[in-house]
Amino acid sequence: MANSSMPIERLQALDNVEKEIASCIQSAGQALTELSKDKASMKQVESHTSQFLKTLNHVEGELSKHINYLTQVSTGQPHEGSAYGSVKMYKTARHRLEHTCSRLQDLENLKNRALASTVRPASAQNNP
């Protein structure tokens, strides 16, 4: 499956969910219409109610799949009310700072060793 077609497929799936929601509402309306009659057919009411519940369960499952997908792909993106992005940036900056300090300390140690090695030979020459 190509990446470019994936968003289109997801949108088509959401469009199908929207149609199922309309069907669900229609089944509920038919059940209520039947109940409002003077002599309601309980068989018809049960049929419409059963169809309503079946469709509703399917819609709920499909929406849950889409919500799960969105939570997986959006974790790197901060959203309103979320501190995740700021915390991630802080931790990354803190890590870079610690790494820079460590490298500077390594350079300082190297410089001190180089100075110490140049000072020793000079002092050895002064002390015969």
TrEMBL record:
GO terms for biological process: regulation of transcription by RNA polymerase II. Component of the Mediator complex, a coactivator involved in the regulated transcription of nearly all RNA polymerase II-dependent genes. Mediator functions as a bridge to convey information from gene-specific regulatory proteins to the basal RNA polymerase II transcription machinery. Mediator is recruited to promoters by direct interactions with regulatory proteins and serves as a scaffold for the assembly of a functional pre-initiation complex with RNA polymerase II and the general transcription factors. Component of the Mediator complex. This is Mediator of RNA polymerase II transcription subunit 11. GO terms for cellular component: mediator complex. It comes from the Eukaryota. Keywords: Activator, Nucleus, Transcription, Transcription regulation. It is found in: Nucleus. Coiled coil: none annotated. It comes from Daphnia magna. InterPro entries: Mediator_Med11 (IPR019404).
